[in-house]
Amino acid sequence: MRAVLMYCPHEFISDNKEIRSIYKSYCKTKIMVMQKLHMDIEGMHCGACATGIQMVTEGVDGVQKVFVSYDAKNGDWEYDDEKTTKEAIVKEIEGLGYKAH
After folding, report:
1. What's the CA gap between 37 and 26, in Å, rounded?
2. Are 42 and 69 part of one and the same domain?
3. Number of domains present in the structure of the chain
4. What is the pTM of this model?
5. CA atoms of 52 and 86, how far apart (whole Å)
6. DSSP element (H, E) containing 57
7. Are 14 and 22 in contact (CB under 8 A)?
8. Cα–Cα distance measured from residue 32 to residue 81, given in angstroms and rounded to the nearest whole number
9. What proportion of the chain, given as a percentage, has pLDDT over 90?
10. Residue 24 is part of which domain span?
């Protein structure tokens, strides 16, 4: 049997259907695609506001990275869209009394 294989921890490619099937049945690695989100935030009055938003949204399941800037009045998030949504992140921010869009 001849097969062409290329492998890295995040990708497996073969021109042989049988080998692809075997690989899929044994591979336990989940490929996670992170979504990026940038939003403006209204209502922050100081650096502690930005810190509070950052701390609360870091606690959302699936959120991997957060940076909130009081000076720029915005924030950036990276999240796993299989675990959370933009709407869930906005809900947490708005629950603190700020407006995110």
Report:
1. 34
2. yes
3. 2
4. 0.69
5. 18
6. helix 47-58
7. no
8. 9
9. 63
10. 1-30
